[in-house]
Amino acid sequence: MKINCLQKIYLLLIFLLLAACFNLSAHNGVLVSAKMFLKGALSGNGLMRDDLRSKGFLPSTEPYSNLANFQYYGDGGGETVSNPAVFEVTGPNAIVDWVILELRSPNALTTPVATHAALLQRDGDVVGVDGVSPVHFLTAAPGQYHVVVRHRNHLGVMSAEALSLSNVPVVVDFTDPALSLYGTNPCANNGTTRSLWFGDVNRDKKVSVQGPGNDFLLVFTHVLYAPGNTSFLLNFIAQGYSQADTNLDGNVIYMGPNNDRANFYYNVIAANCTYLNCSVVEQTP
After folding, report:
1. DSSP string spanning 114-165?
2. Fewest CB atoms less than 10 Å from the CB: which of 86, 134, 166, 192?
3. Shortest CA distance to 76 belongs to which of 119, 126, 136, 26?
4. Other CB atoms closer than 10 Å to residue 98's CB: what's the count?
């Protein structure tokens, strides 16, 4: 089939238009290179444990769409790791778990502008689903934003100041005490670093070990009624990917060594609670 001059021009215009669209998509939005630590997962070597990955419990698709009290904004939601090699990386860049990054306007702090699920590495770096890239908020316009980091059973934190974000990656290091955070006692201090408070099993934005709606009770019931615990033993170890696994070791333990119950008490005391029925409350608005 012979193509005339007019048809060639038409095809060339279509090609240029498509190229322009792809180029704009690649450079639209904002890029964020966040860093964060989850207190429950921290080990003694300054890295977080990656037991969920090494035991094969990490889901390939973000888990937040199925959680109560959570909503995506912008172009986030349904993020999936399509390359199995991402979960095969070991060492400081091994994946710990899925986390959430949010952008909030300084004029409306209570409502996210954009939300994305991302991957957390052992050294604290938050990366996209390819395991290496900054998190890309495609539909967010360059501008000033407060940045929020979240995890499914830790309390979220937000930058106190609005940061200038663009298509050039900006590093937002929530582990650095020099970064000003919103609220009072928003996260745990670990000497020269900071980490998110753990234990929000029921996702009500607070960590409680006693009283109505406490998180501690959910650890108890998870173990008691776990599949395989046919004798309803309180020292049964429930394995898998669970909200009740506060230290992210792939086990939910109510009684015995490394139990999640002791983690709760330690967490509340570390937050300077003077009595056990007080709660550690998330400070994001």
Report:
1. EEEEEEEETTSBEE-TTSSSPEEETTSPSEEEEEEEEETTEEEEEBSS-EEE
2. 192
3. 136
4. 22
Question: In b/e form, how buried is each residue of 196-231, taking b as 16+ CB within 10 angstroms?
Answer: bbbbbbbbbebbbbeeeebbbbbbbebbeebeebee
pTM of the model: 0.88
CA distance 55 to 32: 29
Q: How many helices (H) and strands (E) does the chain have?
A: 4, 15
C-alpha distance across the termini of the chain, in Å: 64
Sorting pLDDT into bands at 50, 70 and 90, what band is 18? Answer: very low
Q: Using CA atoms, how far apart are residues 7 and 15, in angstroms rounded to an integer?
A: 12
Amino acid 167: pLDDT: 95
* 101-149 confidence digits (pLDDT tens): 999 999 999 989 999 999 999 999 999 999 999 999 999 999 999 999 9
Give the whole-angstrom CA distance, residue 180 versus residue 159. Answer: 6
User: Closest by alpha carbon to 206, among 231, 178, 183?
Assistant: 183
Q: What are the boundaries of each domain within the chain?
A: 29-185, 206-281
> How far apart are the C-alpha atoms of 186 and 280, rounded to whole Å?
9
DSSP 38: B
The tokens describing 71, both together, are 């909503």
Mean pLDDT, rounded, for 147-171: 97
Nearest to 136 by CA among 114, 121, 160, 120: 114
What pLDDT, on the 0 to 100 scale, is given for residue 239? 97
43 and 85 Cβ atoms separated by less than 8 Å: no
Q: What is the DSSP string of 218-273?
A: HHHHHHHT-TT-TT--TT-EEESS-TT-TT-SSEEESSSTT-HHHHHHHHHHHTT-
Segment 23-30 shows an average pLDDT of 63
Percent of the chain exceeding pLDDT 90 equals 73
